[in-house]
């Protein structure tokens, strides 16, 4: 199906409609975990609950969107260091489950490419939260390209993403001139004294 100019423009400002249309084309149902907060121009969801086959409509709707205000994708998956087994922790209950697709390098790569595109075209995105998602070097490189072009973001969080000093170096270079940014969450990012020095230098030259 060939999109008209009007359809492309509508898809860029109406995430819900675009997402539902893409789901229909793929033959899958829109996920309530994705659509629950769209009335507030917000996608805030447990990414562990998104099956592999349902990621494409989400990513394709995200990459062109101009009007979302919040994108928050959270993973609660935890690896058991001692046994190599995995656990999913939800509240006080713990049960073994198959590793969710959001933990795979292919999905995180596609996710970061989509967010990169969104950061470049958005007119309203103020909050970007990636929580406990295993971001690899190429993921961060794509994110940094989007962050360096963005003029709207106010809060950025990589909580428990364990990006380390090298990952933070990539991100800090990208947001150095992002004057709209007001807060940055690096909790659980495995920064050492070198990362702390980079953060101190970033604070000196920015409004964070």
From TrEMBL:
GO CC terms, sorted:
centrosome; ciliary basal body
Q: Which domain of life is it from?
A: Eukaryota
> Which terms under GO biological process does the entry name?
cilium organization
In terms of InterPro entries, this protein maps to: Cep78, Leu-rich_rpt, LRR_dom_sf
By what name is this protein known?
Centrosomal of 78 kDa-like
Please name the source species: Paramuricea clavata
- Could you list the residue ranges forming a coiled coil in this record? none
Pfam families under this entry? LRR_6
